[in-house]
Amino acid sequence: MLLGTGVTIVGSYVFLLVGGRALGEDAFAPVTVMWTLLFLGLTVFLIPVEQLIIRKLTLGGGQASAVRDSWRLIGFVVVGASLLAVVFAFAARGSLLDDDLAFVPVAALMFPFHALLVISRGFLAGRGRFVAYGAAVALDSTGKAGGAIAVALAGLGPVALVWALALSPILVLLVRPFRAVSSEEPVEAVAPALPRSDRRFMTGFLVATAASQTVLAAGPLVVGALGASSAAISVFFVTTTLFRGPMSASYNLLARILPGLTRRAAAGDHDVINRFARNFAIAGVLGAGVAGAVAALAGPPLVALLYGSGFRPTATLAALAAAGVVFGIVGLGITQVLVGRGETDRMAVAWLVAVAAAAITIIVVRSDPTIRVVAGFLAGEAVALIGLTASTLVRPGRHVSSSLPDPLL
């Protein structure tokens, strides 16, 4: 899975580099819009679907029947995401998509194809096929990169490049994600850790992911709304995007720790879970401090080296962005505890409070727009980490021990 995640990072950079150089700055702009649309749809709508499947298969011993009652809800989420993408592509075609209606059918099919990818990943992780999971994400990323190279060599335009972005998940079928495997015994819950319904589980998850992505990805829009110059917006965008790369890549690794935490939660073994959350949070606070200090020194010259001297951020911007990303990565890890327990409503509350904290920080801080917004990002991620950690530790019911292996193994 680590190798697959590494291939994903490289493949993403290859797609952007080759596509950008082949199309040029202006023609590549619609591709970045569709890329952003896909990223938001994946993280807000489809990652919750994947984790729902992982959790249900883990509790059901890998048997496909464990997911039988969830297909209607999954279909509703995928169709909803697709409709929103179509509406956006149609409404934004004049301002963001070169007034080209050809992007609309791509938007319509982009999420069903990526739903195939996340459902496949859910089956692979839920059945413990982690090597195949790593191969699946590597194939998807390789398909995107290969598609970009093919488009560049053929001299095609941005619509063709976006089709390469949309169709690459088909390659996941090469690992046969739905083939029958020897089933384990279903996990017998000895503690009331299961969600009341899939609908409640998914609702809390969707609210939490929407709020978290508001804190993570809305920064450039807020910087612009506060009256920053175009140059300042660009500096903010490239700096925060570069630093949050490891956070984006970490989504693939969540599937590795969720099955173990789910088994622990179902067994009622909350002592180990709470210790994991507490220690991980402490490490995150220490890591954020180190990351901020290193970024203050190395961040500005690194950004200038990669993007040019005109994109060089201040040390403060780099430090706050790096520290916030570390808080975010640790928060993602602790989120898996609540997903394993089925307590996505607590996730939603923590992230809604975090959005409020980010907004208040932006209002209170007196500085230029980029510093105000990155301070809001840091505050939001820090408050989310505190809220998520507290939600895992404040656990009703008795604690029991079990002989299950460590959830990270």
Reading the helices and strands in chain order gives HHHHHHHHHHHHHH
Give the N-terminus to C-terminus distance in angstroms.
13 Å
The structural class is mainly alpha
Question: Can you tell me the residue ranges where pLDDT is under 50 for at least 5 consecutive residues?
Answer: 396-409
The level of helicity is: over 70%
Q: How would a textbook summarize the main sheet?
A: none
* Overall pLDDT metric: 86
Overall shape: it is globular
Strand content: under 5%
Radius of gyration: 21 Å
- SS field, number of helical segments: 14
> How many E-type strands?
0
Describe the protein.
- The chain has 409 residues and is mainly alpha-helical.
- Helix content is 76%, strand content 0%.
- It is built from 14 helices and no strands.
- It has helices spanning 2-59, 71-91, 103-126, 130-154, 158-167, 198-217, 219-225, 230-243, 245-249, 251-267, 270-307, 315-341, 344-364, 369-393.
- Helix 4 runs antiparallel to helix 5, helix 7 (219-225) packs antiparallel against helix 8 (230-243) and helix 13 (344-364) packs antiparallel against helix 14 (369-393).
- The protein is globular and about 55 Å long.
